[in-house]
What does this fold into?
Amino acid sequence: MVLGVLAFDAVFAQLPEWGVRTYPQSMTLPILWNVSYGALAVALGVLVLLGVALADRLIPPSAAPPRRRRRGSGASGASPRPGCSPGS
It folds into this structure.
């Protein structure tokens, strides 16, 4: 995906000459900050991943909903204890 973004950024300036696309008339972040579209896309992707990692570290595990026990596990499971035969 990153290679596709960088490849598009490399040929973006030639697109109007090929008649594929005209330059955007609105102000976008790459135009305002004078950076390439590919670099901004990668930077924003990294920021999103860092934000998710930070949120994962800040939210305590006790805030997560409790996990439900699976049926058939634990003391009420279908397998008998070792050494116990049914009916004895």
